């Protein structure tokens, strides 16, 4: 294993070659807000919340898909980064319907946590208010597209950990939505195994257990984390 040495906010940090800047920073106790990243899943770098500045000229790059390199100079907490992170979160709140007080994920929501982390006290963009569907055709789960931030964590966990490949994304731009199989109701899905991993992976209240009440969802990410670790380390005898 090759170890590289880099600087994160002026602190000398060692990391394994091939690690991401996000992983190296978190291992060194430097927190960078992130939403589409979920430990154990392939990173896609889509939400842009984890932007950091690197090297000369300080270009901004998402820490979750930027590899560490010898001598890399990373800054995670500048005024420019704070401005962009707050803007990213505000845009998410403006794009969907995130009325936290009436959401199943109130109190267990990573978008809410991100808003607190970036110091968002208002939304400076016009709300889109485009009412989207809520699909409760599955006997155990529901999807409220109004709460979805299109992070694709459900898509990746269903593919990479469960192997069902039920979720995908249909449409483009403002019309993009997560979809089950060929965009039929979730309850009609011939591939869904009803394992619930997508609900565990969802950072917001977009995926929920039927019967969850306001503030009632328990994402059970600890269970998902142990499933992912078991896949990676294969502790069982073969
Ligand atoms: S319940 Fe399991 S199989 Fe069904 S969509 Fe969610 S992750 Fe995929
Ligand atoms: S349903 Fe949840 S996990 Fe899936 S893309 Fe939307 S916010 Fe992300
Ligand atoms: S967490 Fe890095 S881009 Fe979303």
Automatic annotation (TrEMBL):
Residues 80-119 form the 4Fe-4S His(Cys)3-ligated-type domain. Belongs to the complex I 75 kDa subunit family. Its cofactor is [2Fe-2S] cluster; [4Fe-4S] cluster. This is NADP-reducing hydrogenase subunit HndC. One of its GO terms (cellular component) is membrane. Keywords: 2Fe-2S, 4Fe-4S, Iron, Iron-sulfur, Membrane, Metal-binding, NAD, Oxidoreductase, Translocase. It is found in: Membrane. The keyword 4Fe-4S applies. GO terms for molecular function: 2 iron, 2 sulfur cluster binding; 4 iron, 4 sulfur cluster binding; hydrogen dehydrogenase (NADP+) activity; metal ion binding.
